[in-house]
Structure formats: structure tokens, C-alpha cells
Amino acid sequence: MKQSLLATMLMSSIIAGCSSTDLKESMGLNAPFPELTSQTAQLTPAAMDELASNPLLTERSIYFGFNKYDIKSEYSDMLAAHAEFISKYNVAVSINGNADFRGSHEYNLSLGQKRSVAVGDSLNSLGIGNNNVETVSYGEENANQECTGSACDQDRRADIVYVGE
Amino acid sequence: MKIIQNYIYRFIFLLTLITSSFSSNSIEVIEILGGKASQIPIAITPFNEEIKNIDLEKMHKVIANDLERSGLFTSLDTSGISTIPDSDMLINFSNWSALQAQFLVVGKIITIQNKLTTRWSLIDIYKEKTVLSMEFSGSKKQYRAIAHNISDLVYKKLTGSPGVFHTRITFVKKKSEKIYGLYVSDYDGFNQRAIVNSSQPIISPRWSPDGKKIAYVSFEKKKPVIYVQDLTTGKRVLVANFKGNNSAPAWSPDSKKLAIVLTYSANSQIYIINSDGSGIKQLMRTRSINTEPAWSPDGKEIFFSSDRGGNPQIYKVNVEGVSDVNRVTFEGKGNLSPSLSPDGKLLLFLTQDNGKFRVAVQNLSTNQVLKLTKGPHDESPIFSPNGHMILFTYKDYGKTTKIGTVSVNGLKVTPLRVGSEAILESSWGPITNN
Asked: What is the least distance, in Å, from the CA of B41 to any CA of chain A?
């Protein structure tokens, strides 16, 4: 093993240097399913007004117990109001699940999803079809990364977000 | 050399040797208390060089840090030695023997304009003989690269396994509240550069086994979607943007497919897709969470975490002709984030231990578990491509998440210096030039 082999080794590490991508550049994206927004109506000014004025509709978060995924009865009026609103204006809603920071990012994504699905199921049972609801999760990505004890409770929740808001 | 190799293998496969009497479902947990005596004592002397740049970490330091990080070497302090040799012709063997050095590395760096030439030797003190003697050249910018290549050759010679000191890693850095970057750097955190910048979180970067691409999960579409980015061209492809979440990409050993996780039906389920986003098919379907897929090195099995038994545990399933799902972890309140050692013999994962998340390895033939880190918030463990080290993240004093390595024998934990910002997730690139 003399100079020439080393030269090859070092060259390969230079060539393998990588390029950078900026997210602002436009790219051909191969979304295999239609965007949810294309199937439903946009939020009209009247719908926006109702969202802002109805106190049950300004409530957007459903909180869960530790390691719990069932929806407490205190949220039934709020969920019924949202179901009625979605149905009245045929709008799309995204349910964003969350988890506290403890554990892996990916597993927390799945735990947040379980909470999101619980809310989605609840809306289904109130007559809202899956064309109007997408259940997704942010996992621990919006969670307080330094909480201890009950301070982490606020991160175990699902948020209702209207598409086009 | 054979004797030394056996010596080291005995140590690395401590798990196998201690536990051969256990039945496959019984778990024995070992805490590492000592074992420093099993490390090879090596003296790496300052190389004779003209460069007087005090900011630069000297070549012998880079090599010593490389070897020590593996947990298989102790580098000896040579500051008490009055005359440092710069070639294998000038060794006073009794001096080095008195220092308890088993091996010695000496060298000399000659700089002519922009070109560095390093002449170095590895010497066996017991046998009083030169084991390796070489000359490496490169540009001044390749100072650390030359040092890593010397480390690789010393490592290979003394352990019989390839060194990973020339490899690279990728990690996600949270630069501020709304600025995330996906970085690549040398394995020791030097020479870092961003390959993606985003205002939204990025998680789960995974380097393809052929070294050409990195798959990752981005929240830039207001939900998790999976991109595969080519490292040479910088171009990226959105490989999974299905309804719901798209996450947890895991490369097949041939770099042609990805196991991914979708919530298209409801809860997280594992699918397999070609790395260009075509040909999706579901691996299995249950009502419970199935996530964090990881391929066995032979490509025949997928390990994953699931809450089908209540708390998260690790299971495995055959990729073709799926029918049986077998539980793999049994010990502790929960186990998650599985991945396999390059030889497929060790399972690496996070174990939940009295509220702490710790990095652990389980010998898959004996099921013995070895906890490598203390926690309490350790995450994102991944093997080095030779299986001797593990990259992981940990919380510094319960606050900022940092990145470091732990040797697979648990003896050496080394933080990586990549800046003061939080490091969220990481992955280790393959050995590329062998």
C-alpha cells in the first residue's frame, strides 16, 4: 500500500462530497393521492365568521391522560359542534395528534396518531366521512422538550385544524 | 497477531460467551462495571511536523481519539517521554515497555507547498518489530482525512475488523425555534454541512447502504412525508405522500426498497415501497401500532416496535410470505427503536428502565441484554458500519439534546462536537471506499 492507493482513497472522499438542496426550489412531486383540499369546499367568509364566533368551535384541543387514547365525555359538545360545522359547509379538517417528548420521535408519532384517530373515529360516529377528515400526527415535534411530571400533560392532545385556515 | 485478535473478539462478543447456557426466552441483564484491562494499550506519539497552527487538532490526537472511541484501545500519555522518535528506526523498546505500551505509532509530516506527506509506522513493542510502515500524501485540507486513514489501518491490523474512521454520519440540528437542518459530517462531527434547511421539523434520516442517498421525514407539508435525496446531485424525490403520516423509512440491504410507515388506514402500519416511490405494498395489518421497521442484514426479516401487547415491544416478521410475528424483547417496561448489527447477531434498541430511556443491545441467539448507556433520555441509536460503535442522542442535563458515540462493549462514551444547538436524530453512513 503506497501513495497511489491512498490517493484513490482520498480522491473518493472528495468526490463523495454532497450538494445542498434548498426547500424553496420547485420540484416534481409525485403525490399518489389527491390533496384533501381538492375534494371539499374552501372555507367561505361566512364559515370563517362562524368558526371565530361560536365558542364551541374556538375550542380546538382534546387532551388525553397518560398512555390513554379514549376521549373524555367533557368533549362531546365541542366535537358535536365541529361535526355539524364540517357537514354544514362541507369543509376539510386535519386532526393533528401530539405526544410528550419522552421516547423516540417515530414511536411518539404513532402515539400522537392514536389520539388523532380517536378524534377522527368520534367525528365518523357523528356522521362525518373520511373525505372530510385527515388524521395526522406531529408526534413530539411541537412538544415541550424540557417538561417534567404534569407539565408534560399539555402535550398529550389532538388539535382540530381546518384546511385553508 | 492472532492472539490479539482473539483477545479482542472475546471482548466484543462477551454477550455470546457469557450467556450460552440461557434458553432463548430467558433474559439476563448485565451492567458493565469495569473491563478497562481488556483494552489494548497503545502510545501514539506527536508526529514530527513543521505546521505550527495551534487551532488544528494534531494528527496524533485525531488518531488517539479515533482508536479510543472504539472502546478497544487505551492511548497512553507520552508527555513524560523526553525523546519522541519520528521513525521506526529510532525506538528505545525498553522505554516504551516501561510505559506499558503494547503498540506504538510514530510519524513525520513533511509539507511542501500545499502537499502533506505523512510517513508513519506501527510498532509492536513486545515483539520489538515494525508491523506497518507507510507513506500517505494529500492536500493540507486532508490533514484529518489522512489521520483517519491511518487510524483505519491500525484498527484493521490490530482488531481484524475494518475501521470506520473515514465514514460519515447525518444528523438533524434544530438551529432555532423554526429552523431545522439536515447535516452530514465526518463520523467525529467535523466538516459538517447542511444538505437540507427547513422551517419545519425533520426526523428519521437514514443513509442508504450503498452510500448514495439519504431518506428522511419532513413536516414541510404540514404533516410527515418521506423524501429520498441524492447526495451527489442534491436532487430529491418525494417517495411517500399518502393520506395521513408517512414516516420511519428503512433501507433494504440492497438499497432498492424502503420499509415505511403509513397511517393511511388509521394507526401506524408498515409498508414496503421501491426507493423511487413506486410499487407500494402492505407488509401486515393490525389494529395496533406497528412502526420503526428495521431490516435484518440478509433482507429476509423486518424488526419493528408495536404496542400489540400493551407497552411497546420489539417483534419480527418475515418479509416474504408473512404469517408469523415473533416477539423479540421481553425485559423491561418497554423496548423500541430497533436496528440490527451489520452481522445480524445483535439487536440494538432503546429500553425503558424505571422511567429512563437507555441504549441496549440484545444478543439474538442468547437473548442476553446489555445496557450500554445510563439515560434518562437517550434516543436514535444506530450501529457504526463495523458494528463496534453506536451513535445516539442524549439530553445534556435534561435540556439540550446532544449526540455521541458509545462503544458496543459499553466502555467508552464520547460526545461529538457539532455545536451548541439541539441534535434531534442521527444515522451512520456506510464504509464507502473498501
From this structure: 26
Edge-first strand order for the sheet with B325-327 is B290-295, B301-306, B313-318, B325-327
**A3 touches B: beta carbon within 8 Å:** yes
Distance CA B312, CA B92 (A): 58
Cβ contact (<8 Å) for A104 and B198?
A: no
What's the pLDDT score for residue B114?
87
Asked if residue B434 has pLDDT above 60, the reply is: no
Distance between CA A18 and CA A133 in Å, rounded?
40
- What rounded mean pLDDT belongs to chain A? 80
Question: Distance (Å) from the C-alpha of residue B358 to the closest C-alpha of chain A?
Answer: 10
Report pTM.
Answer: 0.86
Q: What letter represents residue B324's amino acid?
A: D
Q: Quick check: B379 and A104 CB within 8 A?
A: yes
pLDDT band at B31 (very low <50, low <70, confident <90, very high): very low
From chain B, pick out residues whose CB is under 8 angstroms from the CB of A32: 241-242, 277, 280
Residues of B in contact with A30 (CB under 8 A): 237-239, 241, 277
Residue B381: is its pLDDT beyond 60? yes
**Contacting A residues, span 29-68, partner chain B, CB-CB under 8 Å:** 29-33, 36
Write down the domain spans for chain A. Answer: 36-162
- Residue B6 pLDDT exceeds 50: no
Question: Whole-angstrom distance between the N-terminal and C-terminal Cα of chain B?
Answer: 22
Q: Domain A36-162 is of which CATH architecture?
A: 2-Layer Sandwich (3.30)
Where does the pLDDT of residue A164 fall: very low under 50, low under 70, confident under 90, or very high at 90 and above?
Answer: confident
Minimal Cβ distance to A103: which of B223, B241, B357? B357
A161: left (phi over 0), alpha (psi -120 to 50) or beta: beta
Quick check: A4 pLDDT over 90? no
Is B263 within 8 Å of A6 when comparing Cβ atoms? no
- Provide the pLDDT confidence category of residue B369 given band limits of 50, 70 and 90: very high
Q: A6 and B235: CB-CB below 8 Å?
A: no
The C-alpha cell at B349 is 434498541
Q: CB under 8 Å, gap of 24 or more: what pairs does A27-31 form? A: A27/B235, A27/B236, A27/B238, A29/B238, A29/B241, A30/B237, A30/B238, A30/B239, A30/B241, A30/B277, A31/B238, A31/B241
**All structural domains of chain B:** 39-159 (3.40.50.10070), 168-428 (2.120.10.30)
Task: Report pLDDT digits (tens) over B237-282.
Answer: 999 999 899 999 999 999 999 999 999 888 999 999 999 999 999 9
Predicted confidence (pLDDT) at residue B2 exceeds the cutoff of 90: no
Cα torsion B213, B214, B215, B217: sign:
negative
- CB contact under 8 Å between A107 and B289, yes or no, is yes
For every residue of B219-268, DSSP letters joined together read: -TTSS-EEEEEETTT--EEEEE--SS-EEEEEE-TTSSEEEEEE-SSSS-
- Give the nearest chain A residue to B132 (CA atoms): A1
The shortest C-alpha distance from A149 to chain B (Å) reads 11
Identify the band that residue A97 occupies on the pLDDT scale cut at 50, 70 and 90.
very high
Beta bridge partners of B172: B182
Express each pLDDT in A12-54 by its tens digit: 433 333 444 433 322 223 333 334 444 567 889 999 999 999 9
